[in-house]
Amino acid sequence: MKRILLLFLVVAATASRAWNVSVGTWVCNPEASVAVPIEIDDAAGLAYVAVRVNYDPQALVCLRIERGGLDEAFDGDFLAKDDESGSLSVARFRASDGVAGSGGGVLARAVFAVRPGTARQYSDLAVADVRVGDDTGVRDLAVDAPVTPEGGMVRIFGAGDSAARLERAQTVVADTRLASLSLAAGDAIQASAEGTPIVVSGETAAAAPIPVAEPEGGWADGTYRLLATKTAGLSFVAATNGTEALEVEETVEEGGVHVYSLAVSVGGVEIVSAEEGEELGKAATSYVASFFAGSSKATKRVVVSGGEGNVLLARGLGISPAIAQTSETESTADFRAPTLAITDFDPATGVVKARVTPGDGNAIERELVTGVVRLRGGATPVVLTNLAEKAYSVNADGYLESTTKGEFRVDAELDLGPASFFRIAVDAAEE
User: Domains along the chain?
Assistant: First the structure.
């Protein structure tokens, strides 16, 4: 009787679960680039999630599909495919024992190019299929528990068009140009990584304050021109990931155009490069600043050695730099290139295993070992018999997806054919 009761309780608990999988609604111009997040509200109890999203290929071209930020919950394989006819699919798996903890987030981002000549058109983003599974690997939990798919849309306007809320909350993509804009509660604008404003040649009507979504690559020290419009007195609120100082400035330019700018100071620390003539980009600057946010106020300036390429490698792999206090107000952050050591190789299949090791003095979240690494870019030469005896440096120029812990080129004296690289599925270290 106890076993029957326990089974009933487990089934009842499963049935009480529910998941929401959503994409957003976006406003943009033709020829824009739109990064659409595919989000789940809660990953608790899951060992895999598979999602299919349909779109209009007459309006959008899928450029790539990137990992989202749920690498802790889903630390195994990342599978993504676009069939080039209006349907893309994403699957994420948990490699370690057990199931994911609580919390939601972005499973993946689909980056679309908007086709030219599509003004006043739109593409639905339909969440067509969702499958969620537990650690048995065979049960589709969606059979017993509801999954709510929440679709979205890409709305395309010309620079002379007026845009207003249709049904769902929407985000105006960075660098969009419009004649007029009406924002309802919940609508947002996106900051540009280049710091250029969304331009509205006429009036902007908005619920106050207007949420500001962070730019691709995250916030960094600097000034972001958010919105240029003839409307005065608008207010904004920005999600800034622990940024200490936020200040919105309103200036009036020629023709009565009001330009709203957001000054961002990440942790209040100045980040500079030790390499002469090199200026760190926003993504690299933001990553360095994250190590000093909330730390001692004595550090006002950080000098970064190793170059921007190594910073971006570290950002993708979760590597922290060697940090030293050099004066009362200045610190250094030293980023060294990691190495890729081949630990096993099967010449019959071309499958290798490898270990990623940070440079001297650098630390890593966890020692990284590839689950499966495949050579891509042509047939695998059968002469590759001694890979396990060598180690290869990972170069920043060839690290293809810095946010995905995904793909590397390596410096190696091997004839692998054009554009060859190792595809690395990162997993926890094995003894």
Answer: 13-156 (2.60.40.680), 160-264 (no CATH), 270-334 (no CATH), 339-428 (no CATH)
